[in-house]
Write a structure and sequence with these properties.
Layout (H helix, E strand, L loop, with lengths): L1 H16 L5 H7 L8 H9 L5 E4 L5 E2 L13 H5 E2 L15 H15 L3 E5 L17 H19 L30 E3 L11 E3 L1 H11 L6
Parallel strand pairs: 1-4
Antiparallel strand pairs: 2-3, 5-6
Helix pairs in contact: 5-6
């Protein structure tokens, strides 16, 4: 199935390049294409965004040598993703890259000239609670501190306008892959993937760190 999909993608890309996409071809390969009219284009020109919101957790590295010529940029990671040996990662292989966060903010602001707003930023960690002692999630604190510092560098050194910062997240919830063991929260939820336990909410060390950061408006980071 995977090989067939890759072959199909290549065939459609080549047909697009050669201007040979017909209704029959669209139906044959299961692709749907939107026709954009001149009226649509005029309407889109009138639209204006007040700010750009984005999510950032980690950076990803791509090797040009691994990407076939026919692949569109939004598919590069499907073919060319490689490990970045210069960065630390969490247990799921996601890099910890605050400089990448700064670059994302500055690049978007310089290109579009409107304020940017990071609405998700956090790190997934494996954590357990012994039922008594506070969870010392120093790795999460370090992650957020480094990324807030990077954001401030983008603002005060690079000149980017930033509306705010939203960390992900307040409490532990199932991640996008329905995995409760990948915890992002400043508050521990006492349950596992298959055992609900008592669902008690337990503030971690990072909860009190965030409390202080908010009180100081981040001025001491």
């Amino acid at each position: 199935m995977q090989n067939r999909n890759k072959r199909t993608e290549k065939e459609v890309a080549l047909k697009l390049k050669e201007g040979e996409i017909s209704k029959a071809t669209k139906s044959e390969y299961g692709y749907h294409f939107i026709t954009v009219t001149s009226t649509n284009k005029e309407e889109m020109k009138k639209a204006k965004a007040d700010f750009l919101a984005f999510s950032y957790y980690s950076s990803w590295t791509v090797s040009a040598d691994k990407i076939p010529a026919y692949v569109a940029p939004n598919r590069y990671m499907n073919y060319g993703g490689v490990e970045n040996k210069y960065l630390k990662t969490n247990a799921w292989g996601w890099t910890i890259d605050p400089l990448g966060f700064r670059n994302a903010i500055t690049t978007m602001y310089n290109h579009y000239k409107i304020p940017v707003f990071p609405i998700e930023n956090g790190i997934g960690l494996k954590e357990t609670w012994d039922g008594e002692h506070m969870i010392e999630d120093d790795e999460r604190i370090a992650y957020h501190e480094e990324h807030i510092k990077a954001m401030k560098d983008a603002m005060f050194l690079d000149g980017a306008k930033v509306l705010g910062y939203l960390g992900w997240g307040l409490i532990d919830i199932p991640s996008s892959h329905a995995d409760m063991e990948k915890r992002y929260g400043a508050v521990y939820v006492n349950r596992s993937n298959h055992d609900l336990k008592d669902l008690k909410r337990v503030p971690k060390k990072s909860f009190y760190w965030f409390q202080k950061v908010l009180k100081d408006n981040g001025d001491k980071i």
